[in-house]
Amino acid sequence: MGRLQEIAASAAQQKRKLLIPYLVAGDPNVEASLALMHGLAAAGADVIELGIPFSDPASDGPVIQRGVERALKSKTTLTDSLELVARFRADNSDTAVVLMGYLNPIEIMGYEAFSDKARQVGVDGVLVVDMPPAESAGLHQALRAAGLETIYLVAPTTTDKRAQSIVEHCSGYLYYVSLKGVTGAALSDSDLIAERIQALRSMTDLPIVIGFGIKDADSARAMGAISDGVIIGSALVERIAGLSADAVPEAAQVEDICSLIALARQALDTLE
């Protein structure tokens, strides 16, 4: 059992919700990202989704797009992102790390080379936003051979037939997109989301976590009540936007940014 599976199993046993913050590698610089990753772990993150900078982040809203622009301005590459994970692992072997991004940089590196390097540095799973399961055989095989989880998205518009195909390919956890649109948009009807989560539970035993639109402790608690965990991205990246591009953030700055995650952790821990 890999680290991500162990974390999910432990959380389920303890009836504790998974908390998964997202940040862009290299936003606003690699040293800042490293400090923030440690801060997020200390604040109660179970998993950290680390975005791979890419020039055309089509599924992301303006907040994360600007975070990606800052990372690209600091010249952060896929290789830099992998090295960032290795540096994080030097002091943290408990928190899972999932790389989230788009196919282009991975294709350029090569599926096997990417998967092998990801395994070596301590990555636990990979989510490629623009790689549908029907076309993912090559990457999926390389990731599986390296012992990495392959995570997929399910959207409100995903049909039951397609959702069944997705869960058959998915491992680690299933990422449910709570709304139609890009990251950072407002949450839609929670009753409809709950119905969809219930339908997905009949298809898979994987943890189902909700992302998009979760911005504070209240929305984390609301979505955590109907799922196995939550992902917080845009609200965190918006806070990171205030950091200097040319400096390592001070401990107080890191703590202030990560307080969003600490409060979400507290809110989730009130759920049974």
Would you summarize the structure shown here?
By secondary structure, the chain is of the alpha/beta class. Helices cover 48% and strands 14% of the residues.
Explained architecture:
The chain is of the alpha/beta class. The protein has one domain (3-267): TIM Barrel (Alpha-Beta Barrel), CATH 3.20.20.70. 48% of the residues lie in helices and 14% in strands. It contains 12 helices and 9 strands. It has helices at residues 3-14, 30-42, 62-73, 78-89, 103-109, 111-121, 137-145, 160-169, 190-201, 217-224, 234-240, 251-268; strands at 18-24, 47-51, 96-101, 125-128, 149-151, 153-154, 174-177, 208-211, 229-232. A 9-stranded parallel sheet has the order 5-4-3-2-1-9-8-7-6, sandwiched between helices. Helix 2 packs across helix 4. The radius of gyration is 17 Å and the shape is globular. Mean pLDDT is 94; it is low at 181-185.
